[in-house]
Amino acid sequence: MSFLQTLFDKGLISRKESERLSQVKKDNEPLYLTAVRMGVVSEDDYLAAASEFFRIGITDILPEDYEAGAFSGLAHTFLEEHLVFPLSGGPREILLVVHDPLCARTLDVLGRFYPGRSLRLLLAREETIRGWIRTHFGGSEAPAEESGDDGVGTDIEGLRDLASEAPIIKAVNQILTRAVEIGASDIHIEPFADRVQVRFRADGLLYDHESLPKRMLQGVTTRIKIMSQLDISERRLPQDGRIQIKIAGKNIDLRVSTLPVMYGESIVLRILDKQSISFSLGSLGFPDRELDAFNRLIRQPYGIILVTGPTGSGKTTTLYSALNDINSSDKKIITVEDPVEYELEGINQVQVNKVSGLTFTKGLRSIVRQDPDVILIGEIRDQETAEIAIQSALTGHLVFSTLHTNNAAGAVTRLMEMGAEDYLLASSIIGIMAQRLVRVLCPACKEVYDVPVELRPRFGFDPSGDARVFRPKGCSRCAQTGYKGRVAIFELLEINDEIREIILLKRSTAELTAAGLRAGMRLLRDDGLDKVRRGVTSIEEMIRVTGM
């Protein structure tokens, strides 16, 4: 029986947990040590099981008269890397303290270093061994990041105990619950010198929620890491994880990102509320003309449709809505995403996994052999991705993707800068849509006012005519912000013969935009101003989003 099997039999690791652990296991790291590192198995339970299985003792005491000089030939870097400490030695035997009794490579090296002598083992906690090495072999001091203000350091069991304290659990639960209640899209937990600042992003803007005492930082951070199955001992590198949780009767997905900063780790949780989002083109705020045109484009048999805009402008929601709209039993739809934000019924979604080598490019090259009708590429990031998208469109596939550009026409220039050929772009792209999200005025408290005469021409109003619009006021229903929810504004460029000719001639973005306007395209600001006139949003919000 293997030691790992013993951990299974004792119920310390489940088969399901072992599958997850194998995905985050470091090179040459045994699965049982991954379980300890990830906090699935406590270090004390691991040592007790190893002591019983291998029939070796556990120690945490070093003799007062310990002499490291007897082992002067051993470098502290070797001892630290392999977590081994020489305790005593004689002509026939060397007594070693180890963290992993199955460290065959380490024992082989030491066996050759001490020929003719047998090696006997004792077990100890990782931090105990590192401390002895630093003290007696001149190893490097523990980095400042290894120790928090609470003094817990990288003691895994201590971190787990801290994260299990009632005040920590309550604080985390309250933060998550309140964020979901107010409809926040993100939670930011930011450590500073004297406090831990919690902020929510709601309707695109960040708001202060509360400040926590600095002493709670380590517990809150560890609690979130445990919930998202991250490495609780790793504080010097960014990590990404995921939490599935039920809050107020809703099934919520949380995408978790940690980032080491000056005073600890900054944590951002993206809230994905599956039950409150509706992937319907009709609910996104399309004007009638643009909705009809976009509906026509997404039902074409082949070609590239691009959606552009900055991060957080709703591009993914628009694309998911388009796929949901055209999904049927006679179409095979495959997506390649990083990450997959929402699961779509009846659609094959591929999650990019750089750790395992599944990149955007590899995923795309594979899915084109899966006989798809429609392909969604999460984002065109480089020349190779662009070329695969173009070739897919030219060989009879409908391709959806996104780009980060300020307007619709700018997408063509951006693809050329990536190295895409003009004649291929002219032949493959059928439509480009730019979009932004604007906050919707709270219907309970918005108030009417007249646009000042001197500002009316700037916003398309007749100086002598009616210029009544609405502005935010603030009430309890909108948390005093004056806004509740968001809606998109759009700019749709359909590719016609004139625009194809301009692309082939490599003309400027301005000329592409002018050609689009001649064909009936409305700019982002035009759609936005229409929503201002209809009382959907405010002039201030339009200026904030479009910079007009």
How far is the N terminus from the C terminus?
71 Å
Report the sheet-strand fraction: 15-25%
Main beta sheet, described? 7 strands, mixed
Ranges with pLDDT <50 over ≥5 residues?
Answer: 140-153
Q: Which range best describes the helical content: under 10%, 10-25%, 25-40%, 40-55%, 55-70% or over 70%?
A: 25-40%
Radius of gyration using CA atoms only: 30 Å
Return the average pLDDT rounded to an integer: 87
- Structural class designation: alpha/beta
How many E-type strands?
Answer: 18
Structural key phrases:
single chain; 20 helices; 548 residues; six-stranded antiparallel sheet
Structure write-up:
With 548 residues, the protein is α/β, with parallel strands linked by helices. 35% of the residues lie in helices and 23% in strands. The protein contains 20 helices and 18 strands. It has helices spanning 3-9, 15-24, 31-37, 43-54, 76-82, 104-113, 126-137, 156-163, 166-181, 217-227, 288-297, 315-326, 360-367, 383-394, 410-418, 422-428, 497-504, 509-518, 524-533, 539-546, and strands at residues 84-89, 93-98, 118-123, 186-191, 196-202, 205-212, 239-247, 250-261, 264-273, 303-308, 333-337, 348-351, 374-377, 398-403, 429-441, 447-450, 468-471, 483-494. The protein has a seven-stranded mixed β-sheet, sandwiched between helices. A six-stranded antiparallel β-sheet has the order 6-5-4-9-8-7. It has a three-stranded mixed β-sheet with strand order 1-2-3. Helix 13 (360-367) runs parallel beside helix 14 (383-394). The radius of gyration is 30 Å and the shape is elongated. The termini are far apart. The relative contact order is 0.07. Mean pLDDT is 87; it is low at 140-153.
